[in-house]
User: Fold this.
Amino acid sequence: MTKSSVLITGASTGIGAVYAERFARRGHNLVLVARDKAKLDTLAGRLRQEHGVAVDILPADLTQPDALAAIETRLRDDAQIGILINNAGIAQSGGFAEQTSESIERLIALNITALTRLANAATPRFVQAGEGAIVNISSVVGLAPEFMMSVYGATKAYVLFLSQGLDLELSSRGVYVQAVLPAGTYTEIWERAGIDVTTSPKMMQVDDLVDAALVGFDRREKVTIPPLQNAAHWDTLDGARQALISDIKQDEPAARYKSL
Ligand code: NAP
Assistant:
């Protein structure tokens, strides 16, 4: 049986490039998306040669409407694509008071709008086929406002929430949705965002991160947090969230709000 093709955004470097290499090694054909055509060409050439897979490159700036629409079209029309790795993302330096409307808009356009639209473009076809996988790269920053990266963290909290919601909507229809939450990982993201990590605590190697994420993928885990040492912490958090939901009474304010 032919393996499905994998469309990976942000595949020119970092986490996306490692996903590309790992899926090529598994014998999947690839569709690689990023802005840097030269880097995509080099990676594609190497993967074709080393792994004998077919690799298409689609240079695109996913913050630009026409480019995003072209990738959506490919996801809608290419019946070979059965796995979407929604990985392209950027971070941002400085605090909220210093950030500009332009940099916030770009961050949201890539981390939220493009990711959501690409998942949406793939979904009807996956549902129709009764199979498919969507991997959304979130971040542990999305769990912790304490990291003081409020807008970036909020986009990653959105990605986690979206993934959990899509899992609830789509798993019964054969579509697997995974949220991956890396912590600090050695890639270009920091330098690109103008964040100096030379004095930061040691971070994870990108190969280790992707290999761990793929262990979660193979287990069909819904939320994969490679740097989380004790999985029980996630279960406790999720259990508390569900207990909170069951304590919400739509028709009545809580007693503590009924008197001064
Ligand atoms: P990276 O090394 O900077 O790679 C980002 C990728 O996204 C590159 O391939 C880049 O390629 C692409 N990209 C950036 N802007 C784009 C745009 N406008 N349109 C299309 N592609 C674009 O970053 P990374 O660390 O691998 O990050 C990958 C994902 O992991 C992101 O979603 C990030 O938020 C998440 N993450 C990273 C870390 C970490 O510590 N590294 C931690 C948690 C989560 P081009 O420049 O060629 O377009």
Summary: The beta strands are 5-9, 30-34, 55-59, 81-86, 132-137, 175-180, 223-224.
